[in-house]
Every structure is written in structure tokens, then in C-alpha cells.
Amino acid sequence: MSVVVITAIIASLFLVVGLAEPLAARLRLPYSVILAMIGIVIGAGASFLLQTELTDAFNSVSAAILNLPIRSNVFLYVFLPTLLFQVTLGMNVRRAMDDWVPIIVLAVVAVIFSTFVVGSALSLVSSFSIYACLLVAAIVSTTDPSAVVGIFRSIAAPRRLTRIIEGESLMNDAAAIALFGVLMGFVMEGLPNPDPIEAIARFPVLLAGGAAIGWLFGRIAVWVMSKFSRHELAQLSISVALPYLAYVIAANGAGVSGVIAVVAAGLTINVTAPSALGPTAWTNMREVWDLLAHWAGALIFVLAALLIPRLLEDVTFVDIGLITVVVIAALLARAVVLYGMLPLLSAAKLSPKIDTPYKTAILWGGLRGAVTLALALAVTESFRVPPDVRRMVGIVATGYTLFTLVVQGGTLRWVISRLGLDKLSPIDRALSNQVIAVALQSVREDVQRATEDYDLSRELVRSEAKTFGERLEAAVREAEDSSDILDRDRVTLGLIALAGAERDIALERFRERAVSSRLADRIISDADALIEATRTDGRTGYRRASRRVVELTRVFRFAVFLYNRLGISMPLARQTADRFELLVFQRLIIRDLDRFIDTRIRRIHGRRVAEILHELLGRRAELVDQALDGLKLQYPGYAEELERRFIRRTAIRLEYEEYSTLHEEGLIGDELYVDLVHTLDARFAQQDRRPKLDIALQKADLARQFPLFSELDEASLQRLKKALVTRYAEPGEIIVSRDAPAETVFFISSGAVELRRAGQTYRLGRGDLFGQLALLSKSTLRTEVQAIAPTTLLALDDKRFRRLLTRSPAIMEAVRKSAEERGIALDSLYVVSRGE
């Protein structure tokens, strides 16, 4: 085949890809279904033209199409890594980790279950071995959810549901391909059959080995790309090479799962690259990969569909019967997972509740596509597989794929329509009328100002204003006549809009480099969590999610454990600095959201709803301020340093914008502009480094941390250090309860606490002490002390503390002063001071 013909065919394929998307939109069919149909028509047409005696004019073109070097390796080594890698880059890893249980169940557990059910059913009605039937079942277990996900996005289905389906597809392909590799060993002739126990034991090794190689390659790639910060094209080139190198080395070099290696490499890049590369490079990288994946996904569908006529050319009625059995068994297995396993997970609070209509759409939308055809093709190409098994696998897998694409894919939108998933809820319909009325009122004001600015003809303006006014009156009338929306529903809708605005603000600040890249993902994930919780549980869900934003993460708690128990401070310093920056940024965002309520939400939902939203936002601000105050008490001055850094970064960004405007207006030349930008880049690099937070505190340096101990001699200090007992408290933990007997004095070596007594609240931080007044007072003070930050305390018992008072006038004076400030009589203090 000449280079000219191959070039013409490739160009024609890209033309087909370009025309398929608008065609799919016009016919209201899934894009993947249209691509598959086009491929089938091209393949069948080429075969017909080559065999017909009507004309020989198209024989050369038909032969070139049918003789394209399409092999399974082309799909597995060229297209598959691209598709998998792009999906991982586009995932919200933090939010996906929240739903790892349903994703694993739908992907790994469901693949194994479906393989067993379909394989067993096929074995009962055919003469093939159980291993051959299980191989077919593994091949048809890979799902392509692009159709149902695309429709879910168009009908505004819950984001969490869409994310679970996407995550399932990613892990589904990996698990099915790994299982396929294990089962191939049982059907290949000329090789000793593997031991089933060893094969099952090897399955986790394939997954773990692939994950390790992918993580290692991902880390190396990020490190190399970070060294080329001014060479974005080099960074993009390295990212393109990464999935292919990981796949080839894992599959061919280490003998583990190449698919898992690609997924692990992509997830590693997703988590680590944003902070290492910066927002612009990261955004451009994702855009490049979106384009590559679009081409790869379209081409793999078309090329795979070209094979369908060839693979089904000698199909018989017996084969159709086997295909029917596979169709029924696969749907049954999928239904058991959706209607049986998922409700159990929902009852155990491990998965979101999925309504029955959505389950039905997921069941019918489980299309099979190019990966299934590629695996089937790999079997038909292997001469070690018996001919009858090759034929059966090719026909059954291809026939089943054709059924899902044509029957399920062709009717999927109709099914979704019948389920009522494409219709607005009554609340959204009522709200849409009001939104239109408010929007038209704003448009009328803007148009009026525009016509005045341009001094247009009064007659023309009057004529158009009359037409527009009639439309506005109709919209207002329809909004007033529509069913009323309850305040509860308005609050829910307002909170969803508020969380959406928070997400937009975070994205904008990320693009402006006002927030660290490594934290932007968490901030955006928190906003997504607010949206989902509000959609599910309304105001209660918003409150719960907003509290979770402020709470300590599992990673932070683990870092506290490492520091408190093992003395390892670096992870805690990093997590504490992150928490400082997040809380400072949250406080800034909340102020922006207050303005958003007044300028946008009030106009749609009214004053009462706006007041409720302000109240909810105010409570959230209190949570943020409380957490931030705790950190400020623990590490004074650090929040101010972060705020100074934010102001400097904002100033540099504004300077960037000013130079860009001057350059676009032609007021400064290219050379001067480049020089100015380079200078700003250097300044921004300096401000990009976060202030260092030193959290290390050694017990041996106690005297330096507490000025109260400064008067003690060295011998007393050594005895004191031996007597002190370390205690650790997490935020929210009650350290001293109201009814507890006074037996201990606590010194705060790091952290912050809140002391509540007689309706008054005091906050204490690093270097303060508490419990001394309860010990020395004649009456019971009924004081409660609660940690408001990760707190390290040094505890001293009653006897040793009283002895310490006699040796340190400074401590005695400090105790006396704190008692006077709170109006507490400490007669026993004088007794102690006289040594009685």
C-alpha cells in the first residue's frame, strides 16, 4: 500500500471524525454510536464493492480500506494509553477518593461477577471449555460509558453519579484487561496450563506491579517537567511520552499490567503536576490531552467498527443463539450489581443513593466498544488459540458489541426520555420563569443605556422597546402565574448557586496564581462537595459539608500522630501551612460570596432567602475564624505573612495585566514587554515560595518556651522536665470537663484551647497555662476546656505544681494576676507562698 493511499485514508478518517459529531447532535444519537455505524458502513461498503461485479472502479480503494494494518496491538499500544491517561488527568481525584467504594464495586467486583455469570451461562449452552467461555465473558465486561455520561451531563444529572460512572469505566477497563491476560493462558495451546491458584494469586501482583511502575514513572516525569518551567513544549512532549513508556515497560519489561501502569501514572500527574508546573502549563497540558483523546477515541471506534463485517461474515444461527445468551446474562449480571449491591452500599453509607431511573439508564447505557473489539481481535490473531475458540470469541464478542451499539445505543436517549430524566423538575421550571423575567429586566436596563450612549433614533428605539416590553410583560406574567417555590427550595437553589460561585472564584484565583496550585484542587473539590451535599440534603447538607471543609483531614491527623508520637515534624509543618493557607483563602472567598448574594441571588430569590443565606454564610465564617484563631494562637504572625504574600501576588498579577494591556494596545513593543514579563516572573517565583512554618518543639527546651520558668535553677528545671507528662488533644476534644476534680495543671506547648466558665469564654495559646486556678481556689469553678487546634500539652500534678509555686515568684505572680482578672479568690495561694 503506497504512502499516498495511506495518507489519503488517514485524512479521510479525520474528515469522518469531524463530521460525525454534528451528525450525532442532529440525529440525537450518542457520538460513539454514530462513529461505530460509520465504521460498519465503510467496512461493509468496501467489502461489497470489492466483491461485486457491477463495477471495478473502486476496487483499489476498497482493497486499501480492507487491508489497513489494523491489529490488536494498534489499539492496545497506540490508542488505549491515550484514552486512559486523558481520563485520569480530567478526574477530580480527591472527590473520586470519596467514592472509591462504589467505584471499586462497580469496576473490579462487577467485572469478576459479570465474568463468572456470563461465562457460566455460555458454558451451559455450548460445548466450549469453561476457560474459553470465561475469556469471552472477560472481553465483554469492559464498558464504554461515554454515551450515558454525555447524556447525564446534558440533563444535569448529579455530578457524583457521573463521576462514579467515569471512575468505574477507568478501573473497569484495567480490571477486565488484567483478567483477560490471566485467562488467555488457559486457552492457548502448546503451553502448560497455569495452576488456577497461582493464576488467581498472580492477579493482585499484576495490579500492584503496574501501579508501582506507573507511580514511579509519574514522579520522574513531574520532576523532569518541573526543571523545564520555561519550556512548555518540552513539558507537553514529556507528558505525551509518559503513558506509552509506562505501558510498554510494565507490560513487556516487568510482565505486569500496562493498563494499571498508565492509570497510576496519570493519577500521579493529576495529583502532583499542578503545583510543580503552574496553572497555565497544567491547563494547556489538559487541553492538549483532551484533543489527543478526542482523536484517539474517535479513530479507535471507526477502525474497530471496520472489523465488524469481517468478523461476522460467516455467522450462523447457533452463533446468534450464543450472542443472545451473552446479552441476557450480561444484562442480568449488571442488574444484580445495580439493583442488589449498590442499595446495600447505600444502606451502609458507603455509596450515594442512586434513584431507580438512573440505575435503569446506567444498565441500558452499558455499551461495549473498541476495547472489547480489540481484545477479541487479539484472540483471533493468536495462532496458539484453537481455531474453533478463535472463531467463537470473535463472533460472540463482536455480535454482542454490535447489539449494544445499535440496539442499546440507538434507543438510549429514548429510554432516558421515557424515564423522565430529561425533564426539568417542577422547582426548576418555576425557577426558570423567574430567572428569565429577572434577566430580561437587566437586559432592558442595559439596552436602554446602550441606546443612549450611541444616540440612536428615538423612533427606532421606541419601536424595539415596545416589542421587548411585550416579551418582558409576558415573562413576568408567566413567572407570577407559575407554581410558587417554597422558601426551603429557594434556599437550596440559592446555596447551590453560592457553592457554584465559590467554585468559579477558586478557579479564577487559581488562574490568577493567587492560591497555590497544590491547594486549588482541594478548594475546588470542597466546592463540589458543597454543591452535591446541598442537592442531596438542602440546608442541612450545606451545613454538614461546610463543617467538613474546616475539619482536619485524615492526612493531617496522621501527620499529627507522626509528630506527637515519633517526633517527625516535616509532614505536620506542611499540613499546618496548607491549613493556614486554606483558611485564609476561605475567609477571603466568604467575603466575595457575601457580595454575590446581594448582587445576584437576591434579585432571583428575594430578600428573605438572601437573609437566610447571609446567616448560613455567617455561621460558616465563624467556623473558619475559630479554626484560624486557633492556628494564630499556636503560631502567631504566620497568618499575617500569608496575607502579605497574597497581597504581593495580587499586585504582581495586576502588574502583569497592565503590561499585557499596554502591549495589546501597541503602547510598548515586544522586546520591552518580554523584558518586563521576565522581571515579573522572577518576582513571582520569589513570592511563590510559602513562608516557612517551624513547628518543632523539644521538651528539653521547655524553659525557653515558657518565660515563667526562667527563674528556676538548672537542677529545678531538670526535675521539672522529668515530672511533666505529655498529652495530645485534637480539635473538639474536651480536656477538662465541668465536673472533673482539679488535680492537674496544663502548660500549652503547642496548639490552642478555649476555656468556658460562668458564661464567659477565654482562648489560650502557646505558652499559656490552665487548671491552676481550679487547684488553688476554695470553691469549684466548674470550668470546661476544649481544644480548638491540634494541641500538645505538658501536664503537672497538684503536688509538684504547688512545690513549683514556692520556687518561682514569676509563676506565683502570673497565677495571682490571672485570678484577679477573672475575679477568683485564691486564699490558698497565700498559704502556699508562706510555706504553711
Automatic annotation (TrEMBL):
One GO term of the biological process aspect: regulation of intracellular pH
Native source organism of the sequence: Histidinibacterium aquaticum
Keywords: Cell membrane, Ion transport, Membrane, Sodium, Sodium transport, Transmembrane, Transmembrane helix, Transport
Protein name as annotated: Cyclic nucleotide-binding domain-containing protein
Spans traversing the lipid bilayer: 6-24, 31-50, 74-93, 100-122, 128-152, 173-191, 203-224, 244-271, 291-308, 320-341, 361-380, 392-416
Stretches assigned to the Cyclic nucleotide-binding domain: 708-822
InterPro entries noted in UniProt: Cation/H_exchanger_CPA1 (IPR018422), Cation/H_exchanger_TM (IPR006153), cNMP-bd_dom (IPR000595), cNMP-bd_dom_sf (IPR018490), RmlC-like_jellyroll (IPR014710)
GO annotations of cellular component type: plasma membrane
Subcellular location: Cell membrane
Membrane topology, from the record: Multi-pass membrane protein
GO molecular function per UniProt: potassium:proton antiporter activity; sodium:proton antiporter activity
A Pfam entry, by short name: cNMP_binding
